Amino acid sequence: MGTCQSEKGSCGFCCPLTGLPLCPSKRFIKCFIVMLVWVNVFSWLWHSVVMGEMYQATASLWRGPDAMIGWSLHVGLAVLAFFSAAIFLKGYEDAGCREGLRFGIIITLFFSGIAFITYATQPMPTNIILYWVLGDFIMYSIGGMLMGALASKKGCCSKDTSSCSS
Length: 166
Prior knowledge:
Blueprint: H1 26-50, H2 52-57, H3 70-90, H4 96-121, H5 126-151
Helix pairs in contact: 1-3, 1-5, 3-5, 4-5
């Protein structure tokens, strides 16, 4: 196998399928860590505190707390955080928090499709589906704004710094 080179040199990690370098930037690592913490904290608050009674009212649809597969929840949230950071930064235009909000809206629209398919195919109450969509909007919008603030050289400001003046 040949050397793995990018514009910034080689980090030694290459995709076995494409041969492209897999060199995470400092910006990606920061965004991933922030999203990992944020999705874990928000998911716990949203699903335990805000939606807890809804889940208890429909207990027959879910695994009980003792039967939940904890490692799977953690892996799932880590995958969401990883790909949220990767997708956000792939199309990043240095527009700060505004771009993060746009990211949140787009990801919410994507995931709402899955929620409505679940509603169509499983005996799921409407309020749970709507709260899932609202939770996704809050989680991905705030997460996107956090990543936008981290990734931008101007913090939450966009390219047009006049939008940041008071």
